[in-house]
Amino acid sequence: MTQSAHAYAYLRPSAVLDGVDGRRLDLATSGGATPLGAAANPRFFAGFLADPAPAAAALLAVADVAAARYYQPQLRASLDPVVTANGDRLRFESFSGCCGVYARLDVLQAGLDGDDIGHGTTNVDVNNPLREALTRIGPADPLHLAVGPDALEVTTFDGPLVEKKVPLPERWLRGFAETQVTAAGFDLRAELPAAEAVRFLRSLPRGGRSSVGWVVPAGRTLRPTTRPVPGAVCLPGPERLVALQRVLRHALALRVYGPAAASGPAASAWEVVLPGMRLTLTLSPDASRGFSGEGGVLGALATGTAEQDAEFVAVLLAWEPRIEIADLAEQSGLTPERVRAALTRLGTAGQIGYDTAEAAYFHRQLPYDAGRAEAANPRLRAARALVAAGAVRLEEGGATALVTVDDHVQRVRTDEAGRVSCTCLWWAKYRGGRGPCKHALAVGIVRETEGAGA
Questions:
Q1: Within this chain, do residues 278 and 205 fall inside the same structural domain, yes or no?
Q2: Same domain, 331 and 240
Q3: pLDDT in tens, 11-20
Q4: CA-to-CA distance for 392 and 412, rounded, in angstroms?
Q5: φ and ψ of 420, to 5 deg
Q6: CATH code, domain carrying 122
Q7: Is the pLDDT of residue 157 over 70?
Q8: 316 band by pLDDT with thresholds 50, 70 and 90
Q9: What mean pLDDT is reported for the chain?
Q10: Which residue intervals define the domain SWIM-type in the entry (predicted)?
Q11: What is the CATH number of the domain that holds 313?
């Protein structure tokens, strides 16, 4: 697994401090992007959390995921959570080290009481003393929140920086890209009231590894089932929802999201509704199967049209909390399909996320270079190599193409509905469930190139 070092530079460690007006949660920031450009230690918010205890517990849950590996758990991970200020909310995000669980805490305007919420994205320091302090936050404790230092602190600070260097696997970058594509295909499948939500989540296993399971809505609760019956939602590796245990006593409801129909293992999202907040964990289709290999972004990455459109659409983004496809299509003059492909491509650079609760994309700016996920994807690299070698031949009519690989030929077909299939072993195994194979990608590249030259 390819890795690079990612460095954080904080003015001081994050901490919970005692003050004259109550306790103060100071979250140190590092390496942020703002509307005015890059900032070493941006400030996005200062004010009170409306409900300190659930907010502290939810922040710890996001940190739990960042430090966890649910597959091969003996290996530890540590990636400081990302926070995005969208003008009307703060979003805290993290990814597990095994790339199979994505966590996001949305602190909405109703959960914040203070000055204006800024715009931008940064990492926040979560250290062990901070974690211990957050566990002691009670419901009666006023808690002031500061995300980033104020201007005076920046100009007068003369102490040494707090630096962290952590491995940043390419899988994590690809995972952030894939989750927004996966989640965009989810629907709300079930909603449980507080008591049933707590009962169901407490019944789940907390340790070990369990197989892929299913649950089906039954009145106001969820009933386990051994197979994907109509209406069922996949619960792949239920022990991976352990981070939700931290917030159960504050839960108002549980919402479950998944694809409308699935005949095999599928990703799903589990959202706990909290006072003024939402905590969501998105699970990959299997504990041993990270989001990085799902392949949902490959179609958009393989097209030159999406690359050009992405550059245009990126100019229209401004850390908006809700990005609607129809609105962007009207502003850009592009079709909704081209806007969606452009957003998918922007997602591979960490610029787009997807909020299942609002069924809308949102803008953020992760510290990744554009094109990095594309360069790191083995299937896309292999497809481009096939095109460069002249291995693709379109047959008359264009519905079928032959791809020569070494001493054998694969046949790629496209039906009238635009569905693609291939005769290769990859396609036989996954049936398109993990994105297109290298042969289908190569055919798509050739078709676009020939279409552009026509």
A1: yes
A2: no
A3: 999 999 987 7
A4: 10
A5: -110, 140
A6: 3.10.150
A7: no
A8: very high
A9: 86
A10: 410-448
A11: 1.10.10.10
The order of strands in the sheet holding 15-19 is 15-19, 22-27, 143-147, 45-49, 112-114
Residues 368 and 398 in one domain: no
| Residues 189, 158 within the same domain | no
Question: What is the greatest pairwise CA distance in the chain?
Answer: 79
Please give the residue range of the domain that contains residue 399: 378-453
Residues 344 and 387 reside in one and the same domain:
no
On whether residue 246 sits in a domain, the answer given is yes
What are the Cα distances from residue 333, in Å, to 66, 308, 327, 337, 352?
A: 39, 13, 10, 12, 20
Are the beta carbons of 391 and 355 closer than 8 angstroms?
A: no
**C-alpha 54, offset from chain centre:** 22
Is residue 259 located within the same domain as residue 314?
no
Give the dihedral of Cα atoms 92, 96, 101, 104; nearest 10 deg: 0
**Domain final residue, candidates 291, 306, 334:** 291
The number of distinct structural domains making up the chain is: 4
Given a contact cutoff of 8 angstroms between Cβ atoms, the answer to whether 294 and 182 are in contact is: yes
Co-location of 357 and 434 in the same domain: no
Q: Note the residue count of the chain.
A: 454
SS (H, E, C) the chain: CCEEEEEEEECCCCEEEEECCEEEEEECEEEEEECCEEECCCCCEEEEECCHHHHHHHHHHHHHHHCCCCCCCCCCCCCCCEEEEECCEEEEEEECCCCCEEEEEEEEHHHEEECCCCEEEEEECCCHHHHHHHCCCCCCCCEEEEECCCHHHHHHCCCCCEEEEEEEEHHHHHHHHHHHHHHCCCEEEEEEEHHHHHHHHHCCCCCCCCCEEEEEEECCEEEEECCCCCCCEEEECHHHHHHHHHHHHHCCEEEEEECCCCCCCCCEEEEEEECCEEEEEEECCECCECHHHCCCCHHHHCCHHHHHHHHHHHHCCCCCCCECHHHHHHHHCCCHHHHHHHHHHHHCCCCEEEECCCCEEEECCCCCCCCHHHHHCHHHHHHHHHHHCCCEEECCCCCEEEEEECCEEEEEEECCCCCEEECCHHHHHHCCECECCHHHHHHHHHHHHHHHHC
What is d(CA 111, CA 180) in angstroms, rounded to the nearest whole number? 25
Residue 277, φ and ψ in degrees, nearest 5: -150, 165
Which of 316, 343, 373 is the endpoint of a domain?
373
